[in-house]
Specification:
The structure is a homodimer. Helix content of chain A is about 55%, strand content about 10%. By secondary structure, chain A is an alpha+beta fold. The two termini of chain A are about 50 Å apart.
């Protein structure tokens, strides 16, 4: 796999520096030791490791799923080597403090690094991301003693981590979790219960596996408020941080997935022999709150995974379309004329440009969200931090779901560009498509994200968050109108109008939800999609305006900038234009589905 | 797998008899021995065989692809048993004359029978369909002696057949085929060349495999006109019809696909040792014409395959949604209240109703096309036969592509209804989705179908075919307006308007194609999709009007008929309504993709 297929580095640089002004982050005290050169060095290092350790076994681990041999779940040696290379490269602690062994990188840069691993191999990199999320939770809410015992081995990759939330009867419904935690005399807890879909739940990669488990303590209230968070290692860890004996965490089964096959997915049984011991993290009853603390970054991670699968798929399709010769252009009936490269066919060009819009649009969305996380954490102005937190909360359901849906659509087009070959496992686009299908499901399905957006986020703080986002859109509109480029000005006018429509549709829906939350939110999935297209159209206008400004300054990148302008035009004249009847559907409160009785289906 | 999951038999009966008036076919001389009872008996038999021989190993053959053991390609014994049961049931010759051992069934009924095998197992049934297509070609164009030698063993399943068109450098571009056929002194030909993506190209199911191969004779003109069709068996067949020695057809490799894994897909090498002998079918230079003779039914077959995957996927999702309990309705914050079945959630209801619209809409489309084939062949009026042929030609690109695209979308929703379970190979919806992804590619990709529709079919015979289809739509509109049901009348008005728009858009595009075929057809893919939605909206209004008429007569099927009315309303108020801006895009002659230079991508 050549460099070019993982990412278009000029594009990443453009987004980070020309669009998102990430170099300015180095002015913040937390990032004072950094500058663009150190950011780029981190990305270069990630690129090298991703190419060297992750990409080569992506197909191999898809074809050779982890297997249970009766004792343990066996993975390919290359997976463990990759995870250790990732840890040794410092990426598990990329954003952590220096004194904790971290690189103290901005989230924007850290996510850019991680993007490369995702593009190279989503299956193997998932072990790393789960471990990082696990360590982040322990760092944020664990006791000093827990941090001292668990963080070093997690951050150097000797132990790996999981997040064990879901149970067989409570997939999207956290309040219905039934695992229990009974207090023991020594302050620890006896854990008992079944968990399902636990990624990385069992394997032979590391010396130990640290599960973070949501469970209920006795006499806890029903529902989400009764959940607490526990550290439950596969093998017990004594007070000196040494791994001792088995902790009664049993593999109840492996789950075989459509894609993401390199990541083992497990059913786990905790405390079958009443010998599973967990340690409480923080306070009882706070488990879900702790988990939610990490939710934004987890959901950005899902969006970024979907994005990078779309991105590398697009790069593969582009390379193929430039090489593959077939057919002739319409109007040429001479069969003795040589076939053209398929990129010359209008429909192939359309499929490539659409993929570019989806993949690069999604990347701008995810990086923008990461940039908001940095502002939320390190902006010098407290009011700005608060405002940024609201913006981020509003955008998160879109960051999670838009790349999952349209990234998959991009992968579908990448297959189509390859024709029959794209349907075979001999070409990587086939795997990208299967891998990407997961992203509409985990970390909250589309349906869950849609309800989060409409019923919680769109109206929060009396609509302040929406208004702030709208203002940012109008700022971009203003810049585009003053660019002197009439195409940009025309798109700016379209965007201004589209967002006014979105504002009005949102108001209508919020009123409807207040009157009746069930019928009012019945079309939330359409709203989620519509909102997403409006956000991505804004980011495309932003990208195009930035590209237009650079065009005169850096003519050697002229093709690249013209590509951004062309993609923006395409997105506006097709994708955004096609959304207009959705406003009508939503404002009319379309109810046919809700009124359809079960027996009629 | 219960009956209900393969097909909703009331729905099939409704489409066949209440909508398409298929019982009337028995009045035609060819079908004079038939009546509704014999039609139903054939469908019942197909249902039994599909359930007994095909469904049980659908997942097993997905998980155990055919393997080359160095000598032959090994398949599961269940595959051969299923193929033989299909043949012994008479389904290979379902539409053939009685005197050739056929059942002389109408195509509409035969396709209904085959639909059940497709729903049960697309992988294994493909061997049957390829063999039937192969035998149909030999029956139509072979010499009496070829028919005598090849048809009996093909029709009783002792030998299986393939269609060997595609070559590595000429996927969608038939004129670039390079395989050659050199005349031998005895009137036969020496065949030489490589073929790729040959389904059923090698296996251990049957005693022999009869390939139908497109190849060029010496001094044949360049392009499609130079192609001839040859019978090339894997093992030679002597003049008495006995299988003799090997015919120098070598397996060059197996192709490993995303889905459809039960059907082996091969690269074949003909005449590596200059010892591959073929027999000309019919006349030289007519190969492509012969193939095209079968193209309509082959493309209906692809549409039907896509449809039945969507259909069975919907039935699985529906059954799951009625059983699975999870979460509570919006507005209910009481975690101690019992979870509801997920079909109560508005978004799940939406996903089910959308699947119903796609699956049942696609089934009506494919059966309508089959009904046209019957009229084309057996209508007593010659002018009607000719008109029907035109209608069919116009609709074929839609019959091939609409179910492939929206059937896949239905399967995507079936997964989503299942949540995390839907992404696992433990649930059948995962396989349906992978299987269905093929259908946008084989028998002409979406892009090829789009060009066929716009550049050939939409304007053919000075627009007569379009006008005839439009008139049939207006007939349905008239019936709906006079039904006395105001909802139907409202949808009828919408449809009338939508078709007027489609007519105008078509005129605009045809003018643009005449001026410049390249830019004029640049958005053909959007047109194909738009046209498809207009056709399916028509068929939904037709179904709804028929259901409305039955509602009073058969109140015990009230839920079923109300479901048809609800699906029609939903299709009109969402799917059809959302297409309106596509007319604008097409009439404006959107050219951004075409103007995007290769270097900008």
């Amino acid at each position: 796999m050549t460099t070019d297929l993982l990412i278009h580095r000029e594009d990443l640089d453009f987004l980070l520096y020309d669009v998102l002004d990430s170099a300015a982050l180095a002015q913040r005290p937390r990032y004072a030791d950094h500058n663009r050169a150190t950011f780029d060095a981190a990305i270069d290092a990630a690129h090298r490791l991703a190419s060297q350790y992750f990409a080569p076994h992506n197909r191999i681990s898809d074809e050779n799923e982890p297997q249970f041999d009766g004792q343990t779940v066996k993975t390919l040696p290359a997976v463990g080597e990759a995870v250790r290379a990732f840890a040794q490269g410092g990426f598990l602690a990329a954003t952590h403090d220096y004194e904790l062994g971290g690189m103290q990188l901005p989230v924007t840069i850290s996510q850019s690094c991680l993007a490369l691993f995702r593009a190279a191999n989503v299956g193997s990199s998932a072990y790393c991301f789960l471990t990082a999320a696990n360590a982040n939770l322990i760092r944020a809410f664990g006791s000093d003693e827990q941090k001292w015992r668990f963080l070093p081995p997690l951050l150097d990759g000797r132990w790996l981590g999981t997040m064990a939330l879901t149970e067989p009867d409570a997939g999207s419904s956290v309040p219905d979790l039934r695992s229990t935690a009974m207090p023991l005399p020594d302050g620890r807890y006896a854990i008992k219960g079944q968990k399902i879909f636990i990624s990385g739940g069992d394997h032979d990669i590391s010396e130990n596996i640290v599960h973070l488990v949501l469970a209920k303590t006795p006499s806890a209230p029903a529902g989400a408020k009764g959940l607490s968070l526990f550290i439950v290692p596969k093998r017990r860890v004594d007070m000196d941080g040494k791994v001792t004996d088995s902790n009664d965490v049993a593999l109840a089964g492996l789950i075989h997935k459509m894609g993401y096959r390199g990541t083992t997915s497990t059913m786990l049984s905790f405390g079958e022999n009443d010998a599973c011991i967990g340690e409480l993290v923080g306070e009882t009853g706070q488990g879900l709150r702790y988990m939610f603390h990490m939710m934004n970054e987890a959901r950005i991670g899902v969006g970024m995974g979907a994005t990078m699968l779309a991105y590398t798929g697009y790069r593969h399709a582009l390379a193929y379309a430039k090489e593959r010769r077939q057919g002739r252009l319409p109007g040429n009936g001479d069969p003795s004329s040589p076939p053209v490269t398929i990129i010359e066919h209008a429909d192939v060009r359309r499929m490539l440009l659409t993929q570019k819009c989806y993949a690069e649009g999604a990347l701008s969305l995810c990086l923008y969200a990461a940039r908001l996380v940095d502002d939320e954490k390190t902006h010098p102005d407290a009011a700005q931090r608060e405002q940024t937190a609201q913006l981020l909360a509003l955008l998160i359901p879109i960051v999670k779901s838009w790349p999952a849906r349209y990234g998959l659509a991009a992968n579908d087009l990448a297959i189509q560009v390859h024709g029959g070959y794209g349907y075979t496992r001999e070409y990587p686009v086939e795997q990208f498509y299967r891998d990407n299908r997961l992203n509409a499901i985990h970390e909250g399905t589309h349906g869950i994200q849609a309800l989060d957006l409409l019923n919680r986020k769109a109206g929060m703080k009396e609509g302040q968050a929406f208004a702030r986002l709208h203002q940012r859109v109008l700022d971009t509109v203003g810049r585009a109108k003053h660019s002197g480029n009439p195409d940009l000005a025309e798109n700016a006018t379209k965007l201004e109008h589209a967002w006014q429509e979105l504002h009005e549709t949102t108001q209508t829906l919020l009123r409807a939800v207040r009157v009746d939350p069930i019928s009012g939110s019945a079309n939330a999935a359409y709203y989620l999609d519509l909102f997403g297209h409006h956000v991505v159209a804004w980011l495309w206008l932003w990208q195009a305006t930035a590209a237009d400004a650079q065009l005169a300054k850096r003519p050697h990148l002229g093709d690249f900038y013209r590509g951004k302008l062309a993609a923006c035009d395409w997105f506006f004249s097709t994708e955004l234009a096609l959304t207009s009847p959705v406003h009508v559907l939503l404002r009319q409160g379309e109810q046919h589905a809700l009124r359809t009785e079960v027996e009629w289906l």
